[in-house]
Amino acid sequence: MKKSYDIIILGAGASGLMAAIQAAKRGCRTLVVDHASKAGKKVLLSGGGKCNITNRHISVADYVGVDNRFCQFALRSFPTASVMQILQEEHIATEEREYGRIFCKNGAHEIVAYFVRTAQQRGVHFLMNAAVSEVKHGGHLFVVTCNDMQFEAARLLVATGGLACPQIGATGIGYSIARHFGHSIIPLKPALAGFTVSPVSPLRNLQGISLPVRLKIKDKNKVVDEPLLFTHQGISGPAALQASCFWVTGDVILINFLPAGDIILQMHAPENGKLQVKSLIARSLPERLAKALIPACLSERKVAELNKKDRKIISDAIHAYPVVPDSVENFKKAEATLGGVSTRELNPESMESLLLKGLYFSGEVIDITGRLGGYNIHWALASGFLAGSCM
């Protein structure tokens, strides 16, 4: 015997929870299904456990996808002010960090507890530890089978997230469901992840070094000013994670290791003429990094002995060091997923499928990915809010 609801939501992450609250507020009998043991698992781990829930400055330009303009209506419907209002009304303390990033000061558990509590108070039913084995549609109803039980509803929301963080249960079920109902999937790639570089690259074996940089993808209008962290396999940290949203195989990344200075001016200063190049650069950069960047034949020479060509070589090494990564780190290291359900097949004003009435998508499963800094959780909330308000 099937149990009937008005709405079934697949996924108990930020997007599914927000949608459930909005749907229940409208009087819809709502069921949330998830294979995890508890709701909001990824939210609980995000932001180092403090959940970078939103950003003070959010615009369409902060998102990537085949058509990032798709997210415009959702962002207008549920702006940063809406998130802040919830936090204030629920007395959830926040802290604002660089670049307008808003965190839950006392931990992500507070915001997850709010979502679950509010959903339950509005009558939302939860089915956890439930693996979906089949989703069918017929007679204007969706039938979801899980744990040998069947549930039916006129409307179905797929808010299952992406492939990032499989170690906490991320799967590709949302994409399988989308394909089953005829939707196109934009190729999936890891996003907000570090880069691996060639074992023979001078940038290998610099793990532990961290410094602010300006990173640019050559021939693309993408510039990132963030800290860079060297790992045993390549480069990571906020700068690399941001760049991973825009990088494609073969792209050259230019790194300015001294964005706030000008090594040419320092070399031209008369008082630095007697210094060895390595001593001058050691004033601004970690010694191990300087040694990796500057050719040995130049680093031992005195600054005054350098000709124009030598100075340009040094300047380029510090201000425009070229790196062609081997790859982006895998989904296990990634924080988000690039690609997903094609936005050309969804209504941006409701998140409903243009191919099948009553089918909706929200959050990371859609081909919309935000930069690092609270943009992805905000997108999950905004798209979930819109879907839950329209279903």
List keywords for this structure.
391 residues, alpha+beta, FAD/NAD(P)-binding domain, Elongation Factor Tu (Ef-tu), domain 3, 2 domains, seven-stranded mixed β-sheet, seven-stranded antiparallel β-sheet, 13 helices, 21 strands, elongated
Descriptive overview:
With 391 residues, this protein is an alpha+beta fold. The chain has two domains: 3-189 and 337-390, 3-Layer(bba) Sandwich (FAD/NAD(P)-binding domain), CATH 3.50.50.60; 195-328, Elongation Factor Tu (Ef-tu), domain 3 (Beta Barrel), CATH 2.40.30. The protein is built from 13 helices and 21 strands. The strands form five sheets. Strands 1, 2, 7, 8, 9, 10 and 20 form a seven-stranded mixed sheet that branches. The protein has a seven-stranded antiparallel sheet with strand order 17-16-13-14-15-12-18. A hairpin with a 5-residue loop joins strand 13 and strand 14 (223-230). It is elongated, with a radius of gyration of 24 Å.
